[in-house]
Amino acid sequence: MTPTVLVNDRQITLMAPEEVNLFVVCEMAERDMGVGLGEISEGDFTQEGARAVIEIPDGDPERWRQVFLTRIAQPEEDAFLELGPKPEEPPFSHLGPNSSLEDLRQWALVHYKASGINHFTSLQTIALANRAQFQVFLTHDLFQQVSVAGQETTYPVKVRAYARAMRDGVKFPPLVLWSDGRMRLLEGFHRLYAANEARIPTVAGVIFSP
Predict the structure, then answer these.
(1) pLDDT band at residue 47, thresholds of 50, 70 and 90?
(2) What is the distance of C-alpha 74 from the center of its chain?
(3) Is the alpha carbon torsion for 22, 90, 95, 182 positive or negative?
């Protein structure tokens, strides 16, 4: 399928090959235009390709069309690298073994909000935890413990992009874990998989526990 972008009044119709991630394309277009898109009113994702009809805000429709054409043509791995951390992502360089429960909890909750993560159970687990600890893990050992649980939640292109960034020295936020006698990864599967793929020897994490 040849990438196509059609503009009609305040709607834009995107059609692209199956391998194009239209959600990432939309996020990049929003960043380029400096304004959020409306709802996806229609969407079909098949082996033949992807199609979505999206509400666009007031502005220059032709400019939107050109931005979408550019972003559809961009390799997805490059898009993930360009997106980088969310603007609201909290700093984490100050976190360490001496960080308090409340400091670690506050960082984790703000990190979830900035990343758009709304998993109720995970958020409640963090909010109700009585203990928290910052720890540095051997990447491969932790990967072996939690890899099975993350196989269906990781996106290979995103893992490759993160691994590429890690090899270039980019620092990523700590993982978020829960331990009640068994270690479980709550958030950060892509980062852990990427660190393992990039052969980064250690990875930091925040462990919450009852």
Answers:
(1) low
(2) 18
(3) negative
Determine how many CB atoms are found less than 10 A away from the CB of residue 13. 16
First to last CA, the chain: 52
Q: Dihedral angle at the C-alpha atoms of 42, 51, 159, 76, nearest 10 degrees?
A: -130
Tokens for 112?
A: 């979830």
- Give all domains of the chain, ordered by start, each with its CATH number: 4-74 (3.30.70), 101-209 (3.90.1530)
The answer to whether the CB of 15 falls within 8 A of the CB of 4 is: yes
- Partnered with residue 7 across adjacent β-strands are 12
pLDDT tens per residue, range 147-187: 656 555 777 888 989 999 999 999 999 999 999 888 899 99
Q: DSSP readout, 89-150?
A: PPP-TT--TT--HHHHHHHHHHHHHHTT---HHHHHHHHH-SEEEEEEEEHHHHHHHHHHHH
